[in-house]
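Quick entry, no commentary yet.
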Amino acid sequence: MVSGTSDALRRIAGFLDGIPELPDHLVTVHSDGGRIGVLFGAGPEEQVRVDAVRRVLAALGATADQHDFEYGGTGTLGPYTVEVCTGFD
């Protein structure tokens, strides 16, 4: 059962804090409360963003793939679906 936005934010913040040296990122919680987005967007070089996506997804027990415009994948954190990607330039 999904508990809501504040629970999702607490969980993802605690999870990401446990992964050292991540570059700047944006976290979104969708209004349905069941999905969390983590975006490593413009700023760091592309390889730094790709490595960050790979590390976060590995910690979630998932893998990343190259899509049309971005590199990313989906994992789970408790009851939440976590979408992690580089975005595109």
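second:
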Amino acid sequence: MSAPLAKTDIFNRVCIIIADCLASDVNDIQLDSYLFNDLGIDSLDFLDIVFGVEREFLIKFRKTPFEKFLRLDTLVDEKNQSQIPIERLDAIKKFLPALQLPPNEPSISVITLMSSLTTETLVLAIEDCCYTGS
């Protein structure tokens, strides 16, 4: 296994992938930029970015905790598919530094979850996939 990349190196490469996907300026992307709200990506852009990350870093998110963002059906409540029970977030909380969990609520909406994805989410997922053997 090669030496781990510095977080700033990963971030810079992720910014290039996002900027390329959105045809935007790489300097407009910050570590704490919300992917959907700040950068204006949609679900297809998200998949394009994820595939770009996999190509760039020679990784696959399949069978890693990050895959749950690509397979929301593994998270949602069976009775109310727009909600995710809080306990199902345990495996992915580490990728969500911006997530604000509501106190005393049993679940959050899928929209809340996806709205909390940041550029840092991708950086953390890459680190997890590359350097923890996930």
